[in-house]
Amino acid sequence: MAAESAEQLHAEMLARLEKGSGRFSNLFQNWIKFENNGERLFKARGANGESFMLRRLADYEVSKALVVLETAMAFWDGERFALYINAEDNDGNGIWHYLADNLRLNEGRETLKFAHILIKLDVDFARRNKYGISPLGKMLVPEPKWQSINALIQTKHLQIVNVENAVAEQAKGDQGVLANLMCGIFAGDLADNRALLSQHVLKQAVQSNTDKEQRQATCRLFFDYINAEDGTTAFHKLLGQANSAMFEDLLGLLMQQTEETVMGMSPPDVATKKVYRQAVLCRRLLKRDKARRTLFVHCMMLGKTNYLRKLTGMLLNDDLAIKKLVRGEPQPQPVVVDKSSPAPHNPLLSALLARDRRGDTLLHLAILQNDREALEVLMQGLASNDVHAMLTKVPDAAGAVPVEMVELEKAKARLGRAVKAGRMPMELANARLKRLAKVDKELRSYIADKIAEIEALASDTTGGTPLAPNFDVRKLVGAA
């Protein structure tokens, strides 16, 4: 005898309900006790091969599907229940696929209860159907269902690799779409989900038993995927919300994955390894958003001086070069970390001298924010000739060098000329002048004293003029 269809069983249930005033849960629990009804339920399939329970979910009858789930779990032995709960339709869609469709519409109490039961039963939420789509992908795109995702987080089963693979299904091979979707999910996590997913994947990545693949995927998330709208990464956005412990974990992960990348490049000696390490770090740390702002600028704007100190401390203040054989002789070959920089081979100077879209460097921004502590951090460890040139020769967006920015009349004159030449709107010039008027005496004295100290030293050692800096001043002046 052919198996009955899921629709026929449902019609029978509805007919029984019409005859009485009972609830579906009571009716179903009593019905399954009768001889052969359990077998009928087990074999019944819908038009696309779906079970009676999947059919209820397909019709968005979550409460009825939940009754079927709980009743089958109570009445059937483990083997039969496992077969039923893991059954798929003709397209390879399992119970999580059907539940995900319901979750996308409504994360109600019963829907989430259903999800929690499936999680406890360890039913695979990442299993793909014949079209390559997983339930997790449905829960993440187009809008993440945070209560469901958080339920998966609590089980500690969810990994960044699961998330990345699920989103890749939706991106259909387009890396730009993948990057934008990943950035959107984690931006939403920060804005709407108290960064629970970000904290979860980071915590997993820094554990001692985490594999290399998971660390790589986590680093891609925080440092490589770029938001198409503003050009930021997840790390840019986390700077404003991460506590010091989370920030330290992020840097620890970055350094560990950098080392793994460098080892894969098979450096021939310690000196080359150091250069490779800096080059890999610079690809991530010198990355800019669409406003041409680096991670260092974001730290500055957020007032995260400790983060700024940590990040600048990771970069060498030295020209990078590796030795290559030229006519049988080893010759140093410069390694470029930022081709647009006036110090293209020096990681730290490239970071300090990077201009945003307006033309300001980190030093100019520190003055505009009246942030002496940040200015001291930026000057720390630099050669005196570089410090002198940065304070006296590097122009800001209006053409004023730092020593002129802290002298209000000179700054006002520079801003006036910039407005007249059409290089700056009047509104922006007025806003900058107001900020410069608030620069305190301590910061002005710090800059004046630093310049005087370097010039006094130069008068004793080099005949009165500081040595030329280790960067191309002309490149900066020409860009101002």
Task: Describe what this molecule looks like in 3D.
It comes from Rhodovibrio sodomensis. InterPro entries: Ankyrin_rpt-contain_sf. This is Ankyrin repeat domain-containing protein. The N and C termini lie far apart (86 Å). Helix 4 runs antiparallel to helix 5, helix 13 packs across helix 16 and helix 18 packs antiparallel against helix 19. The longest helix is centred in the middle third of the chain and has 21 residues. The chain is built from 28 helices and two strands. The model has no long low-confidence stretch (mean pLDDT 92). It has a domain of 158 residues: Alpha Horseshoe (Serine Threonine Protein Phosphatase 5, Tetratricopeptide repeat), CATH 1.25.40. A two-stranded antiparallel ribbon has the order 1-2. The protein is mainly alpha-helical. A hairpin with a 2-residue loop joins strand 1 and strand 2.
CATH top level of the domain at 1-158 is Mainly Alpha
For the biggest sheet, the summary is: 2 strands, antiparallel
Secondary-structure content class: mainly alpha
State the share of residues found in helices, binned by percent: 55-70%
* CATH fold descriptor of the domain at 1-158: Serine Threonine Protein Phosphatase 5, Tetratricopeptide repeat
Task: Please list the strands of the largest sheet in the order they lie side by side.
Answer: 1-2
Q: Which properties best describe this structure?
A:
480 residues; two-stranded antiparallel ribbon; 28 helices; Ankyrin repeat domain-containing protein; Ankyrin_rpt-contain_sf
How would you summarize the topology of this molecule?
Layout: H1 6-19, H2 24-31, H3 37-43, H4 52-58, H5 62-75, H6 78-85, H7 95-105, H8 109-120, H9 135-140, H10 146-155, H11 160-171, H12 175-192, H13 196-205, H14 212-224, H15 234-238, H16 244-264, H17 270-285, H18 295-302, H19 305-313, E1 321-326, E2 329-334, H20 347-353, H21 362-368, H22 372-379, H23 384-393, H24 402-405, H25 408-420, H26 426-437, H27 441-461, H28 473-479
Antiparallel strand pairs: 1-2
